[in-house]
Design a protein that fits this description.
Length: 493
């Protein structure tokens, strides 16, 4: 058994990330069942009673359907097309958003992405209630900059509805080369009408760990953000810990907000150095039909850190992030601050077939140290904190002026942004009235723009930059500030 590299389903050319978030193994042709190459011989060799004892008797119906199509369909259909369709149909019948089939081309793109950067919009997605749903945009990605947020539901791409499409088909609609734009129609909780969000695709780096030292009064705290768990994440995490400890810190904040998960070994290697020796980190429970026994991963810290630790979570924290959060609380007694996590508690195995296609299949579930299964439930924080409303504002539309007397979700989004920037639009119901116009004029005057009261392209860019600057200011991050307060309380006990 070997461990996968990044283990998020990074389909390079697909421009988004199809959600796997937690994959264990890649095994070439190892499901004790026919590979796609063998199945392709269905036409003649795959016959009940023909000595092909490795095929279950239920395959007789599949064989009959194949022969009916080949002999009676109005047009000739390539055998490979029928076989690919049969495999995709079996996977789709599982109704599992984390199981998927990749043809050889898609599998090659996936494998090439495991240890490199990739082009796209930089967001992890899954299928939820029949809709393509954002798990989390990556840090500083085009998706994040455009205003996509966890749990946004994408219902159309460039004006084409995604209804009825599989996750794979939907993601193909979103893919495209660096520098091109894609227009997404998004349903967001709390917004009456869909939002239109334009994202410019770009190169997505794989840097996963960001450390900084924060001063708060007489205290200095380390903050390490983990954007996702990949092959180098544990080593980078330790580098940042060593650096911050060398500079002197009174506590540590581990930030997994917006982290969609990834490589199991990375989260285990990080967590085992922070928890008491032999304390459980995560338990893996396989299906009843599996010959594998359950696995438990335990901590190995010879001594605990001499300072308190807090973990920051939000609704974009999924899978491996949830493993870390649960282990830190249940086995280490550390506090979680922020929002309830995503709720992804299953494990996928990736099997490479003889023709280099891949099947990614859910094979197990993981449990917290206390034996809880958080799938579809998430983990509630010890200290719940919501961010200001403007943190969830989307980017305003490009090349579309917003002017007096307009109404709709884009105007409402504008009003949220203006209020977040300290300007008073007078109302927040999506109607562009004179007071909203005056707020726009005030912003334009302060930023040396043409004072027209119309939100043109130059004003959109300036509003967006001002909003990002405010969001990135640690003083405006209410969850971070609350985590700092929790650390202070623990230091002064």
């Amino acid at each position: 058994m070997r461990w996968n590299g990044r283990l998020v389903f990074l389909l390079v050319a697909f421009s988004m990330v199809i959600s796997s978030m937690f994959t264990i193994t890649v095994v070439k042709g190892s499901l004790n069942s026919p590979t796609s190459g063998a199945i392709a011989a269905l036409g003649d060799a795959f016959l009940p009673g023909s000595g092909q004892s490795q095929y279950p008797k239920e395959f007789a119906k599949l064989h009959d359907a194949y022969n009916v199509i080949k002999s009676q369909y109005v047009q000739d259909v390539p055998a490979d097309q029928l076989v690919e369709g049969a495999i995709e149909g079996m996977i789709q019948s599982l109704e599992d958003p984390y199981s998927a089939y990749m043809d050889p081309e898609s599998a090659g793109e996936y494998n090439n992405a495991l240890h490199s950067s990739f082009q796209g919009i930089g967001a992890e997605v899954t299928m939820k209630n029949g809709r393509v749903t954002i798990v989390s945009p990556y840090k500083d990605s085009p998706a994040e900059k455009a205003g996509l947020r966890p749990n946004d539901q994408v219902i159309s791409v460039n004006g084409e509805s995604l209804e009825g499409l599989s996750l794979h088909e939907a993601v193909e609609k979103i893919r495209g080369p660096k520098g091109t734009k894609v227009t997404l129609e998004v349903v967001r909780e709390g917004t009456a009408q869909p939002l239109t969000i334009v994202v410019t695709r770009d190169e997505i780096p794989v840097e996963t760990v960001y450390g900084e030292r924060l001063k708060s009064g007489s205290f200095a705290f380390g903050k390490i953000q983990i954007a996702q768990f990949s092959t180098e994440t544990a080593a980078r995490f330790q580098e940042e810990v060593n650096r911050l400890e060398g500079e002197g810190i009174d506590g540590l904040i581990i930030d997994v907000r917006g982290n969609p998960g990834g490589y199991l070994k990375a989260v285990v290697d990080i967590t085992k150095t922070l928890l008491p020796d032999k304390k459980p980190i995560v338990k893996i429970e396989y299906g009843k039909g599996s010959s594998k026994q359950g696995d438990t991963y335990n901590a190995e810290a010879s001594e605990l850190k001499p300072y308190p630790i807090v973990v920051l979570t939000d609704k974009g924290s999924a899978s491996a992030s949830e493993i870390l959060a649960a282990a830190m609380r249940e086995s280490g007694g550390y506090k979680l601050v922020g929002e309830k996590t995503f709720g992804k508690g299953t494990v996928q195995s990736t099997v490479q077939m003889e023709d280099d296609s891949l099947i990614k299949l859910t094979i197990a579930k993981w449990l917290t140290p206390n034996g809880d299964w958080i799938n579809n439930k998430g983990i509630e924080p010890d200290v719940a904190v919501q961010q200001p409303e403007y943190f969830n504002a989307a980017r305003l539309p490009d090349n579309k002026a917003l002017t007096f007397d307009l109404a709709g979700p884009e105007v409402k989004n504008l009003q949220v942004i203006l209020k977040g920037l300290g300007l008073d639009p007078g109302r927040e119901d999506g109607y562009f009235d004179k007071r909203t116009e005056e707020a726009v004029k005030q912003f334009q005057k302060e930023h040396k723009l043409s004072v027209t009261g119309k939100v043109d392209q130059a004003t959109v860019e300036a509003l967006h930059e001002a909003l990002l600057e405010k969001i990135r200011d640690p003083q405006n991050d209410l969850q971070l500030q609350r985590a700092i307060e929790v650390l202070k309380q623990q230091k002064t006990k």
